[in-house]
Design goal:
Length: 476
């Protein structure tokens, strides 16, 4: 019995047209990465579990896809249930069926049977790469990486379990000019894509640490930032409720209230923060860092993007220590963030290489695709199809056609020969369905005159041209 054709939840197939549009975005991002001096690297799709675990906070770690070692394993001693698939799937499956003690036992068991995991992002693998290759790298090291990542998340619009990230990071420099340039890089890429009105939100983790200190919740910093980071999703009341559930007092919430009503220009907001955080040395460091970045970006100017200080921006990842970024699409599009990043002072320290500061940003390819599609910003020329289809009249004619095709391909013109000698009408129908704009007729008459008949399938116009004329027409 044939199995049902299907793909895992949260993954997608891509058609030739979709792939062409994705490659269009990737090429623009890649070109600008290189324009700004970043070099490409690649890392494996899966890492040792210990490389990834503990780097993303409790919520992030829960979304890591773990890979079972080879062999059969059992975790239920009584029923001897065999566990196929990923550990993340098994934990989801068992979550409602296991007691707390059984869940702890399962987590312990997981460590014994799973030594590897699919990468959750590109930043932690990059930190591991830097440590392993530190003697080969010239610092500061500017790298870019465009590869897929995996998260055991709940799929929804713009959120998938397998998706691409396009990252650019600099390690080995604490200079805030790097942050200034990364803001410019965001602006340059989105301008190149024709996507105006993007908002680059900026904040600083030192400011969040300072606020936690001022309200007397320094010991709850992670709970505070994780809850605050959900403001767009669950609203002010939802954030406050979660903070209280995590043990943050009502008195502290009263002190944090100004965060939810910060208004004015970036300069106005920075001045308000200076007042709020006057008693926090850490918080004031964050204020001065923000002031430096924002003032210089403002003086240099942006082409189409808007820089905005969002004091509620937290970014849920634990490794950020300084400036943090999140990119919001134009307000006319209902979509979550399409990029993000920030400064991490000692991410490589967890792998034994201390005092290696870095900063990086990421572009969300899949969401950027959806935004460009909704706003109809893909150029008409972005296509995976051929420019012309040569009609097949038989072996003699096919050979004559292929000699021309060979020359056209040398000029990087995408052309092809219909492989079978079938009814001409069927071949033209094939060109129409493929949205190929031209057909080339190379029959006996054309061979005798050493010419080609070029037909525009959109207008129906047909002209007789030689090989050079064919090149000129198809190069347009």
């Amino acid at each position: 019995m044939a199995s049902k054709a299907s793909i895992p939840k949260g993954t997608r197939d891509f058609s030739p047209t979709e792939v062409a549009k994705r490659q269009y975005i990737i090429q623009i991002i890649k070109n600008n990465f290189e324009k700004f001096g970043f070099q490409p690297i690649e890392t494996p799709s899966f890492e040792n579990s210990e490389t990834l675990m503990g780097k993303y906070g409790e919520e992030g770690d829960r979304l890591i896809f773990k890979i079972l070692n080879s062999g059969n394993f059992f975790f239920d001693k009584k029923n001897k249930i065999e566990l196929p698939g990923t550990i993340a799937q098994l934990q989801d499956l068992a979550a409602d069926k296991l007691s707390t003690e059984e869940r702890i036992e399962l987590n312990s068991f997981t460590k014994k049977i799973s030594e590897k995991a699919l990468r959750y992002d590109l930043t932690v693998p990059f930190a591991r790469y830097v440590v392993q290759h530190q003697n080969e790298i010239e610092f500061p090291f500017k790298r870019y990486q465009i590869q897929p990542v995996w998260r055991a998340d709940n799929p929804q619009k713009g959120r998938f379990r397998e998706f691409f990230q396009c990252d650019a990071d600099v390690v080995g420099s604490k200079s805030l000019w790097q942050e200034v340039e990364l803001v410019q890089l965001y602006d340059t890429v989105f301008t190149s894509l024709g996507l105006s009105g993007v908002t680059i939100k900026i904040n600083n983790r030192k400011i969040l640490s300072g606020i936690a200190e001022v309200i007397g919740a320094s010991d709850k910093l992670i709970d505070f930032t994780v809850a605050l980071d959900k403001l767009d999703k669950i609203g002010e009341d939802g954030v406050k409720k979660e903070m209280m559930e995590k043990g943050i007092s009502e008195e502290a919430l009263v002190k944090v209230q100004p965060l939810f009503s910060f208004t004015g220009t970036i300069s106005d907001k920075i001045n308000q923060l200076s007042v709020l955080l006057a008693s926090s040395e850490e918080g004031m460091k964050g204020v001065e860092e923000l002031r430096f970045i924002c003032d210089n970006v403002s003086n240099l100017g942006l082409s189409t993007a808007i820089l905005d200080l969002d004091v509620t921006l937290a970014r849920g990842l634990n490794y950020y220590t300084g400036a943090i970024f999140e990119i919001a699409p134009p307000k006319t599009v209902a979509m979550g963030s399409i990029g993000g990043g920030g400064r991490y002072d000692d991410l490589t320290g967890v792998f034994g290489l201390k005092n290696m500061s870095g900063v990086g940003i990421s572009f969300g390819l899949d969401r950027i695709y959806l935004v460009l599609e909704e706003l109809q910003l893909f150029p008409d020329t972005v296509t995976a199809t051929s420019k012309a289809l040569f009609i097949n009249y038989g072996d003699k004619e096919a050979f004559y056609a292929l000699k021309a095709i060979q020359e056209l391909r040398k000029e990087n013109i995408k052309v092809e020969l219909y492989p079978d000698n079938v009814k001409v009408g069927k071949q033209f129908q094939h060109a129409d369905k493929r949205m190929i704009p031209f057909a080339v007729i190379a029959g006996e008459q054309e061979i005798e005159s050493n010419m080609y008949s070029l037909k525009n399938l959109l207008t129906g116009e047909q002209v007789s041209v030689d090989l050079e004329g064919l090149k000129a027409a198809l190069l347009v």
